[in-house]
Amino acid sequence: MSRNEFRFVVDGVDLTPEQQTLIAGEIQKAGLAALGTANAKLTNPLTLGHGNLKLRPEWYGLWVLDGPFAQDLGQKINDIGFWMQR
């Protein structure tokens, strides 16, 4: 299993928390679109992340997990009932 990490860094610009959240959401959408453009072969993707700095700052961003680890983690999330009906 490989890991690829892509970063977007803004240095020297003061951004409000609202601006940070907006930019994070746009970067998340662009990253997911890029996976499609690159025709990435995902078998069972699990997407985790958020843009709420107050919730858990260390989780700020988006993770796309695939393969057995994604399956196991997804099942654990389902087991504790942490899901949102849309």
How do you describe this structure in short?
The chain has 86 residues and is an alpha+beta fold.
C-alpha Rg, in Å?
15 Å
Number of helices in the DSSP assignment: 2
Helix content: 25-40%
- Side-by-side strand order of the widest sheet: 1-2
- Total beta-strand segments: 2
> Which spans have pLDDT < 50 for at least 5 consecutive residues?
none
Decide which structural class fits the backbone.
alpha+beta
Task: Describe the protein's architecture and organization.
- This protein has two helices and two strands.
- With 86 residues, it is of the alpha+beta class.
- The chain has one domain (4-80).
- The chain has a two-stranded antiparallel sheet.
- The longest helix has 21 residues, at 17-37.
